[in-house]
Amino acid sequence: MLETTKIRKTFNANTVNEVRALQGVDLTIDEGSFVVVLGMNGSGKSTLLNAIAGSFRVDEGQIVLDGRNVTKWPEHKRARLIGRVFQNPFSGTAPEMSIAENFAMAAHRGKIRGLGWALSSELMQSLRDRIASLKMGLEDRLDNAIGSLSGGQRQALTLLMATWLRPSLLLLDEHTAALDPKSADQVITLSDEVIQRDQLTTLMVTHSMQQAVSLGDRIIMMHRGQIVHDFRGAEKKRLRTEDLLDRFEEIRRREQLDESAAQMLCDLYI
Amino acid sequence: MTLLLGALTIGLILSLLAMGVYVSFRIFDMPDITTDGSITLGAATAAILLVHGTNPFIATSIGAIAGAGAGVITGVLHTRFKINSLLAGILVMTALYSVNLHVMGRSNVPLMQAKTLTDYGDSLGQAVFRSESLILFGWEVGTAEFTVLLLSGVVAALAGLALYLFFRTHIGTAMRATGNNAQMIRALGANVERNIIFGLALSNGLVALSGALLAQYQGFADAQMGIGMVVWGLASVIIGEALVGSRSLGLTIAGAIMGSVLFRLLVAIALRWGLNPTDLKLITAAFVFAALVLPGLMKKINLQRSKAAA
């Protein structure tokens, strides 16, 4: 279970480039819930994920994960509880190291690494079985450098790595946005399978309305660093892409109204 | 023949330097100039202890540990204080110059009177072969020189093997990932900053060990002996990769050792043919420059050719 309370983050505070990326986000995610985060560019959805993962410290507020207050934990310590897949397919794997070695590291996510042999025979066996289930023909190429694989293959492997040890929270940050449509479909199907099978508490950022309506049990919509809509339960199930587009249009119009009102006041008084 | 044995021995001793540079330059992807200072630090520390009658094994170990300490400082400057890695290395190297002079108390410490590992090697050779000289492939060679060469080979091989085994363990694998994709290994729970500090300590420890052994072999430690050594190490690593390719971990480590020996041999031959020793560093630097630039240049030329052909 994840609980964020009034978290705020401002980048480049007190400069011309000041960005108020998170403006008091309250979010509670139940155990086993699969939440999709939607929002326009710059709405703060990726920042929210990074704040939870610990890429930076939040200015205010607190983050509680699994009953533990992780607000002040550094990123690598939070990795004990969190599995992550990044938008960039190259970010989640060490390209010059073999597939097997990458998984050996994932099998020790958040654990103390000792002087044991990284590629133990048990690991290799379970790895071969698990990777064979991907049906990508990679089980015979475990010793190949992972950098020789396609973006889609790497992203699928990153997902398996992130969930090799069951994480308390899985963070997917637009993890199919950089892939071709076919690979994106494969990775999405795989993600859904893994999440359902292990009942993983998941937070997934996406740009795709299609993914948002077909996946998960809850959608939150962000705008200007705040959560503006929260659909869950039966409401989420009824939701169609058109409804989501309507909500975006609504946000856009309100924005325009704000701007034109400001312009009018400006013309009148200055 | 004595010249050849000498070149091979120094090549093997400096292969520890090459492995140290391999760790910082290839595995952690940061050329670390601390090397220039830490090789002298290792030599100076070991030499001054030997002069005071310390057991050579202990003196050599303390020299290596001192070098590792220098690496820790560079690592802390880089990770904690966010100083550019190159600049952090330059700062520590510069500071080490004074430290080394303080350690030695003067700019040169001869080891003529002191009992060193080389002397141990000599006695061991006499005990095993029971003669002053022996015949090797029709050449008469000194038992002492030959034994020291063999022992240097054993040390280099053991160090290479230990390095290889270490980088295949859980912690070693995470170290390699730190240099390859820091974001990834951080997301898997490794403390990237600590890994970098440890890596630089390992690298400079090897370099200082090389310095301590070199001082004992050549019979003195000198404040100037570290100048340009990082480039020397780079040259060895690059030659090694040309020899064995850069595909697998074991091969590249073996390559660094072979590269170091081959480079030392080439230098010995060039000097023999009348190369002015003054030009040695210039030529080494030019060589590394060429080795870094040529592969990219060749690719470009080939590309243009194939374009012109099409």
Structure in a nutshell:
The complex is a heterodimer of chains A (270) and B (310). Chain A is of the alpha/beta class. Chain A is built from nine helices and ten strands.
Can you walk me through this structure?
The complex is a heterodimer of chains A (270) and B (310). Chain A has helices at 45-53, 75-78, 99-106, 121-132, 151-164, 181-198, 209-214, 233-238, 241-269, and strands at residues 2-11, 19-29, 34-39, 60-65, 68-69, 82-85, 169-173, 202-205, 218-223, 226-232. Chain A has 270 residues and is of the alpha/beta class. Chain A has one domain: P-loop containing nucleotide triphosphate hydrolases (Rossmann fold, 3-Layer(aba) Sandwich), CATH 3.40.50.300. In chain A, the strands form 2 sheets. Chain A has a 6-stranded mixed sheet, with helices on both faces. In chain A, strands 2-1-4-5 form a 4-stranded antiparallel sheet, with helices on one face. In chain A, strand 9 and strand 10 (226-232) form a beta hairpin. Chain A is globular, with a radius of gyration of 20 Å. The N and C termini of chain A lie far apart (51 Å). The mean pLDDT of chain A is 91. Chain B is mostly helical. Helix content of chain B is 77%, strand content 5%. In chain B, a hairpin with a 2-residue loop joins strand 2 (133-136) and strand 3 (139-142). The longest helix of chain B is centred in the last third of the chain and has 30 residues, at 280-309. Chain B is globular and about 65 Å long.
What are the defining features of this structure?
heterodimer; A: 270 residues; alpha/beta; Rossmann fold; 6-stranded mixed beta sheet; 9 helices; 10 strands; B: 310 residues; mainly alpha; two-stranded antiparallel sheet; two-stranded antiparallel ribbon
